[in-house]
Amino acid sequence: MKKNACLLLLVAAFLFACKKSDVPGVPAEEVPTDTGYHYKSDYAYNLNVVYFIASDKTANDDYHRRISEVMLQGQEFYGKWMKHWGFGDKSFGLLKDVAKKRIKIIEIKGKLSQSNYSYDSGSGNVLKEINEYFAAHPAEKTSDHTLIIMCVKDIQADKAPFYGLGRNCFALDYPGMDIKDLGAGGTAGSEATGWIGGLMHELGHGINLPHNGGQKSENTQFGTSLMGAGNSTYGKAPTYLTKADCAILNNNQVFSKVTRSDWYTSFSPVITRLNAKYEGGNIVVSGRFSGGGGVNYINFYNDGNKNGIGGNKDYDAVPWSTQKIGLDSFYVSMPFSEFTNTEDYPYELRIMFCNQNGSLVTAPYPYEIKNGQPLVDFGDKNEYNKTNWQVIDFSSEETVAEDGKVANILDKNNTTAWVTRWNTNAPTFPHHFVVNMEQSLVADGFTFTQRGGSSKIKDMQILTSTDNISWTALGNYVLKDVGGPQFIYLPAPKTFKYFKVIVTSATDGRQYASLAEVGVFKN
């Protein structure tokens, strides 16, 4: 017995004394290393947290503790608002050692110097190296969402990426950044709120959240929306997530405790009926849709043009969120009194369908405020059926580099579009198309739906004909640089069989043109 025991001790001593690569018969990457932390999670997927260090930098002191504390507080913050809005006791998943209050952070040493990982153009280099790491260590990647914390020594001089980029998001760690400084005075406090609050804001983008500013009464009660200006209030003044934020997160992969195989697969909901009006101080929108069987929530964002619409200009968008009604319907009543800005300028209502697999599809609709009152001019018109219509002439179409065929303007699908040829031999203005409606129809106007991309139509001319030989010009018109249907009303009913649209400029000043849908209506 003694001899066997000694032998076992010698073997054990040998194993623990050797480097991982020196253990015979065991690949280096398979030999476990006891780091002193034992990370667990009850979520099916967990946020990947990467600490990225350029080749000419060294890790900031005590970053594991500091970042862990930031992320654990952030997990509590997100979970608090999920529970508040009725989505249950859940947040984003993290691999963590609960007893020691540490999370798993993947440290990656960059191959290049900091100047190659700049704010303006360096994110691609960072993502390339992170993807290479995950390809070599697939078990380390526990979800499709990654928070990348850039190690910097000087916030301004190092100019590291700090933004959301799809399901990846960038933040930074500077020497001494610490959660204990949140709410403190002086430089340490302002930096902590700005950069830790900024981390939480960019994390929101990395887990699919758009900007939005909350409703007026919510801002009074809860403070500032994180996905609005909350990156400047987090930790020092009341900050919150809106219900629309939480409806998106409810379907997010890293908020799930069950596995599924179809995360973020595309779907194509189509609004088949839409009614909208301003009545009794409320903007009331209702409708039905098809192709969205997995939808459970519909969000509504009212984005005003005071600071610009969409992109990075929608911090003040006022959101609502409702559950789907039955299988295919929605209804929302949005009090105008909840708008934070009520000046006269264009607005865009974005209707977002939230699928249980995490995918999101948005349909935009323009309206405006005039004399302090919303003028809601979207919703169904009595459009003629386009099933037998044909485009019989057009200037060009892009069918090599993308599906930009001109027939897309008649397919009743706002996610497809006509795009003039741009891949090779791109023609310049004017661009045109001619539609044959197969029979003479009496029309009160036209519906034009811009595509959600570049080179939207700005200036155009509309002509009509009964024989495709003699043409009558109806006039020159201007479309807005917004998504959703826009209506052109004729001064008097007009009968025609053919119509021609001649495009003379685009909203972005480029030489191309694009359009999602065109229709004709009779009220």
From TrEMBL:
InterPro entries from the entry?
FA58C, Galactose-bd-like_sf
User: Where do the F5/8 type C domain residues begin and end?
Assistant: 373-520
One Pfam family this sequence matches: F5_F8_type_C
Signal peptide per UniProt: 1-17
Sorted keywords for this record are:
Signal
Q: What is this protein called?
A: F5/8 type C domain-containing protein
Q: Which organism is it from?
A: Pedobacter steynii
